[in-house]
Amino acid sequence: MAKLPISNDPKSTAANARRGGGNPRTPLGGAATSAMSVKWTAVHDAAAAVGELAGEPPEFRTPEVRNFPAIMRDAGGWRFIVAQEGVDDLAAIMEPGLTALLALHGRGVPTLAPAQALWHEFQSARAALLALIPPLGV
Predict the structure, then answer these.
(1) d(C-alpha 87, C-alpha 39), whole Å
(2) Please, what is the Cα angle at 114 between 113 and 115, to 5 degrees?
(3) pTM of the full predicted structure?
(4) Residue 63: domain span
(5) In a domain? residue 75
């Protein structure tokens, strides 16, 4: 995962999280949440294509999956930062993986096995991110 940028700026999400607070509902946090939401949606769109190539049925997105960026925004602090980094990492896996699968598919090469491998990687990585959701009442 990427290292946290060091900043003493009190408006910095990372600086606030290191201080133990860091509810990123500041303008910076709102932009970060919006960026994470866009990336989260794009990752799931890519995953849907991978799932189709892997022979998986269309996935129903649970409320936790649909609302993950907002839940992490509300959780704030270290959870929000780890979630941002995790979504970035997941996008970094899915984009080239889907590109490669589509290139193979376009050439008529069987894609079932590599698509299933990428699908399982996506499922595992997403499960790890969803584990960041705090228990109710916390």
Answers:
(1) 7
(2) 90
(3) 0.75
(4) 31-130
(5) yes
